Amino acid sequence: MQTDYVQRFMFENLDIRGRLVCLTGAWQRMLDGRGYPEDIVSLLGHTTALNTLLGANQKGAGRVTLQVQGSGPVKLLVADCTAELRIRGMASYEKVDVSQESERSLLGNGRLSVTLEDLKSGQFYQSLVPLEGETLEQIFTHYLSQSEQLPAHLRLFADGGALAGLLLEKLPNADSRDPDGWNRVIHFANALTLDETKDAQPYDLLTKVFPEELMRVFRLYAVEYHCPYDEDKVRDMLRGLGRQEVESILAEQGEVVIRNEMCNHEYRFDAAAVARLFATH
C-alpha cells in the first residue's frame, strides 16, 4: 500500500489538472510527542496538506512555507515543505477548551502568509492575505483562486492517523473543451472521504472518484517528515552568543535550555557541557 505521497494528474479532455496528497507515517511523526487536541490536529493537518500540495509544484532548491496567524485561541499554524517534499510543521495555541469552537472562532481575525524561498540564492517571495472564509478549506480556496488566478476546488481531511488533500485547478480552455466539465468533476470530488483516501492506492482512488473521465496520471512523489536532531547547529549558535553570555544564562538558570518548537526538540547544556563547548574556542 502506497502512503505518504503526492499524485499529480490531468483530465485529458477537460483542461483541468489536479494533485492528491495522502500522508500517514510522515504525518504521525510530525505529531509524535506533541499532545495536540483533536481540533488542533485537524487544523494543522489541513495546513500541512495544502502546504504539501503547494510544495509538489516547486522546482529546484525551493521551499514553501504556509503560516496562519490568528487572534483567537489558535495563534499560529505553520508548515513548510521543500521541493524534495520534506515536510515539518507545528501549532501554537492557548490552553483552552477548543472542542466547542468553530474553525473560524478558533482562528479569529488574522492573516495567511505563503512564502516561496529559493534555498540556493536566498531570494524569497511572500504573499499576505486576510483570513476570508469560515473554515480553513474555504480560506485556502479563496487564497488559491486569488494567487493562482485560476478557479480552484480544494478538499482537506485530517485526523491523528492520516491527512489527505485534493486540489483541482480549472485551466483557461476548460469551458471551451467541455462547458459542464468543471461542475462535473467538483461534484465527484465532493464525495471523497478521508477513510477511502488512506485505504486506497492513488490511481485506484482517482479512477473510483472520477469514473467517467479520461485521466493522465503522472509519477508518484514520495513525502517524508524531516526535522532532524542537530546538536552541532545548536552548539554553533551558543558559541556565536559568546562564552560570557552563555555562562550568565547558566549561572541564572542552572543549565542552558534551547527549545526548537518547529521540530519539537529540546537541547540541554549543563555546566560540564558548557565548559566543553568553549574548551577549544
Model description:
The protein has about 280 residues and is α+β, with helices and mostly antiparallel strands. Helix content is about 35%, strand content about 35%. The protein contains eleven helices and 13 strands. The strands form three sheets. Strands 7-6-3-4-5-11 form a six-stranded mixed β-sheet, with helices on one face.
Secondary structure topology:
Elements: E1 5-11, E2 16-23, H1 25-31, H2 38-55, E3 62-70, E4 74-82, E5 86-93, H3 103-107, E6 110-118, E7 124-130, H4 136-148, E8 152-158, E9 163-170, H5 174-177, H6 181-189, H7 194-198, H8 202-209, E10 215-222, E11 224-225, H9 231-241, H10 243-253, E12 256-260, E13 265-269, H11 271-277
The helical percent reads 25-40%
The CATH topology of the largest domain turns out to be: Hsp33 domain
Beta-strand residue fraction: 25-35%
CATH class of the largest domain: Alpha Beta
Strand order of the largest sheet: 7-6-3-4-5-11
Number of domains: 2
Discrete helix count? 11
